[in-house]
Amino acid sequence: MAALLIPRRNRGMRTRLGCLSHKSDSYNDFTAILPDKPNRALKRLSTEEATRWADSFDVLLSHKYGLAAFRAFLKTEFSEENLEFWLACEDFKKTRSATKLASKAQRIFEEFIDVQAPREVNIDFQTRELTRRNVQEPSLSCFDQAQGKVHSLMEKDSYPRFLRSKIYTDLLSQTQRRLS
Predict the structure, then answer these.
(1) pTM of the predicted model over 0.90
(2) Coiled-coil ranges per the record (predicted)?
(3) 3, 44, 60, 163: which sits with the fewest CB atoms below 10 Å from its CB?
(4) Phi-psi region for residue 116, left (φ > 0), alpha (ψ -120 to 50) or beta?
(5) Does residue 15 surpass a pLDDT of 80?
(6) Which domains, and CATH codes, for the chain?
(7) Which letter, b or e, does each residue of 105-120 get, where b requires 16 or more Cβ atoms within 10 Å of its Cβ?
């Protein structure tokens, strides 16, 4: 109940500070956020599937366990807002109701794009301003430029580090050990 009394702006900071004591880059962190029960999920994940994640960033994002592993990695780097924004945009594009479109656009803007947003993504001023204008009259493509910039940032920066991370290498080792 006390969390409700903390201003919204300070909750993100409290969460980030709380994570400092839990920061880790291991296979165990990945299993904690798997969409299924960890042991069952890892039995379903083949070495071949996990290895394919290195083929392209989009292959990783399209696989539910790849997405979970990448999210766990981003949490260790305190940059999961990039993935959360990208996923929010993907969900936004599926919106069919004009009323919901406007409210979802405003929520995404306030959460990720606006200056000092609780989970502000790193985009340039021009993209931020274009998105601000687009949200005034929202369409399914109003976040396309910002989403593209964030996707590119993750692909060029976070994704290569993920492929070298302990989370990914431990996961590959675990799937290979199962075969032995």
Answers:
(1) no
(2) none
(3) 3
(4) left
(5) no
(6) 46-177 (1.10.167.10)
(7) beebbebbbbeebbbb
